[in-house]
Amino acid sequence: MGCDIHMFIEKRVDNLFPWEADENHKIEVEDAGTEDEYTHINSVSATGRNYELFELLAGVRGTPINAVFEQRGLPNDLSEMLKSAADQWAGDGHSHSYLSLEELKEVLVKAKYDLDRDKSSDAFFSWKDYDKSNYKDRPEDYVALVNYCEDWIDSIKQETFMDLDEYRPEVRLIFWFDN
């Protein structure tokens, strides 16, 4: 049985404001209008099954002592949308945690990801748009996610926001696993 990661992006413009799920996390409905109708919130596409990385992220599929950061559980100030997404997994979701963007980059470097190799920033790509037999034509997992978050931070830094002289855009990555 495989283990998959479910990763979500939360953002805020300044620590005075609540965390919000990225606008690309959308509620999707499967089997609409039937008894089996099911809704879920899509997670970030730019992730993949990499057990060495899972071990570094949260000690999953490996030794917990090798995790770069201890599992933190879900944050107390989690956005309502992502709280709902986590609740839908109930007992099937495990090893919940979160990292800042800088912490995620630290883990990726330790996992030997080349953060400068791919400049793609398509963190929410559609798998059906890529040839599954040729993984080289799609954005690199996790690096596209980092680029996406950094692009958002750079764009916010260029805006005037509510006449604040200084503010800091923040990103955190919420994640859990299932088997």
List the keywords.
4-stranded antiparallel β-sheet, 179 residues, single chain, alpha+beta
Give the topology, please:
Elements (H helix, E strand, L loop, with lengths): L3 E9 L7 E2 L5 E4 L7 E4 L9 H8 L21 H10 L3 E8 H10 L32 H15 L12 E9 L1
Helix pairs in contact: 3-4
How many discrete domains? 1
Which whole number gives the mean pLDDT?
Answer: 86
Q: Terminal Cα separation, in Å?
A: 6 Å
Structural class: alpha+beta
Succession of helices and strands: EEEEHHEHHE
Radius of gyration based on Cα positions: 17 Å
The largest sheet, given as strand count, sense and whether it forms a barrel, is: 4 strands, antiparallel
Q: Taking strands numbered 1, 2, ... along the chain, how are they ordered across the largest sheet?
A: 2-1-6-5
Work out the number of β strands: 6
Shape: globular
Compact overview of the structure:
The protein has 179 residues and is α+β, with helices and mostly antiparallel strands. The chain contains four helices and six strands; from the N terminus they run ββββααβααβ.
What does it look like?
- This protein has one domain (about 5-179).
- It has about 180 residues and is α+β, with helices and mostly antiparallel strands.
- The chain is built from four helices and six strands.
- It has helices at about 50-60, 80-90, 100-110, 145-155, and strands at about 5-10, 20, 25-30, 40, 95-100, 170-179.
- Helices cover about 25% and strands about 20% of the residues.
- The strands form two sheets. It has a four-stranded antiparallel β-sheet. A two-stranded antiparallel sheet has the order 3-4.
- Strand 3 (about 25-30) and strand 4 form a beta hairpin.
